[in-house]
């Protein structure tokens, strides 16, 4: 099947001149993928972090009363996946063809299924027994299943990256899920997943991402 390459749709030059402001709590959480994309792009931006006590001050500035939110020049946008896709597209991390974009979106949603299951287990129940059972399922079932799927994808692609032959949003989302976020403690990237381990190290070796990782703030989530 022949797939035409997409026409040049990014606006990197325009984005280089745009003022960006990222709104989020003082943690990694749902905003960290955006920070990693911006780090990889070398794009300067205002990383506006606030405490839970300060949240009422910023909540009215967001479209839906939620964060992360991203301000582009004078307009504020929201929804984390929309923000990630926008930034990845603008800075060249969303593939070069329709099918590559499709595959990247597929993998991002696969990893998000794991992250969402982790969040549900960690925060959405006050019943200790139910929480313990949910965490056990994430660690022993959801995590290994996700890593197994990713291992197969990497084997088929054969480049070290999840899609294509260069860094994409899929790789960045994998890095976030496995390095220091709220879900990373529930994901055991052991020797059963050698290709996943290699990809994580490959993404870390990116000069700009590596610099960001070396200097980013510690965060429990």
TrEMBL record:
GO terms for molecular function: glutathione transferase activity; structural constituent of eye lens. The lineage of its organism: Eukaryota, Metazoa, Spiralia, Lophotrochozoa, Mollusca. Residues 18-95 form the GST N-terminal domain. Keywords: Eye lens protein. This is Uncharacterized protein. CDD domains: GST_C_Sigma_like (cd03192), GST_N_Sigma_like (cd03039). Residues 97-221 form the GST C-terminal domain. One of its GO terms (biological process) is glutathione metabolic process. Coiled coil: none annotated. S-crystallins are structural components of squids and octopi eye lens. Contains relatively little if any GST activity. It comes from the Eukaryota. Gene3D superfamilies: 1.20.1050.10, Glutaredoxin (3.40.30.10).
């Amino acid at each position: 099947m022949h797939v035409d390459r997409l026409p040049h749709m990014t606006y990197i030059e325009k984005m280089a001149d745009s003022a960006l402001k990222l709104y989020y709590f003082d943690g990694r959480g749902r905003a960290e993928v955006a920070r990693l994309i911006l780090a990889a792009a070398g794009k300067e931006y205002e990383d506006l972090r606030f405490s839970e006590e300060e949240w009422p001050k910023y909540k009215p500035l967001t479209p839906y009363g939620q964060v992360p939110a991203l301000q582009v020049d004078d307009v504020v946008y929201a929804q984390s996946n929309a923000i990630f896709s926008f930034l990845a597209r603008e800075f060249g991390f969303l593939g070069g063809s329709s099918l590559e974009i499709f595959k990247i979106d597929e993998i991002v949603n696969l990893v998000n299924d794991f992250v969402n299951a982790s969040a549900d287990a960690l925060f959405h129940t006050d019943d200790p027994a139910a929480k313990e059972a949910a965490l056990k399922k994430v660690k022993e079932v959801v995590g290994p299943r996700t890593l197994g799927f990713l291992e197969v994808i990497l084997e088929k692609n054969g480049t070290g990256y999840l899609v294509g032959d260069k860094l994409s949003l899929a790789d960045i989302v994998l890095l976030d899920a496995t390095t220091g976020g709220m879900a990373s403690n529930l994901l055991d990237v052991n020797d059963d997943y050698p290709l996943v381990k290699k990809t994580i190290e490959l993404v870390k070796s990116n000069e700009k991402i590596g610099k960001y990782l070396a200097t980013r703030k510690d965060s429990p989530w």
